[in-house]
Amino acid sequence: MSREVEEMASFNKLKDVAMLVLHWILHGAGAADTCQVTVTQPKFQEVDYSTHTVLLTCTFSAFGCSSSPPQVLWFRFLTKKHEDLCTPGCIDQQKYKVHLSENEISLQISNLTVDDNAVYICGVAFSDSSSPHSKQTGDGTVLTKAGVEKQHSNRRLGFIFMIITSSLLFLYSATVFTFFLVYKLKPKLLKKSRNEDQRTENCKITSGRKIFQAIAQELQKQRYTEHCQQPEDLEDDTVYQNR
Fold this sequence. Notes:
single chain; rod-shaped; disordered N terminus
């Protein structure tokens, strides 16, 4: 929490410095009036490592000011210093260009590198007015260009995410396919199970019949054997009596 407070205090100090620079540049111009300017900037703008040109934008509104176009100024605050990029002429015409269209202002930065990471503050001033509100700056835009390490890290994260997504899709497809097979094959499996049960029952019945037939045949053999032995016994008794 204390670190955030320190950063906010440092940023406010940078903005105050920008306001002092702006007033110093345009000091003593114009007569007293009620001109009031408001400047708005996006807080953050992050670009990819492959980006070589970027547009930083800001908008402004003016009340009670002259109809003449205002002066546009851009400042840059690095870690330990600030630079007057365009006041209003740019220090490097090849790298920095300012565009003004009605109430919209943009700073075009070419040949962008990670060294351009900084806080960019847009300033608007109606030089023909001496009102303290006729010269205002925005809250600043933090420009960040991703380095090579972050680019590779993002690619690795994207690759890992792709693998995870593919795995989940494969599991989902396998689950759906399994349920589909069970749904389709369940009637056949039930029918096959019934057939096997019926076959087993038939086998039991057939086996019982075979066993019964075997027992019946054995009994029939025994009766036949007893029947065949009776005449021989009678013949022996008859011979014995005649003697």
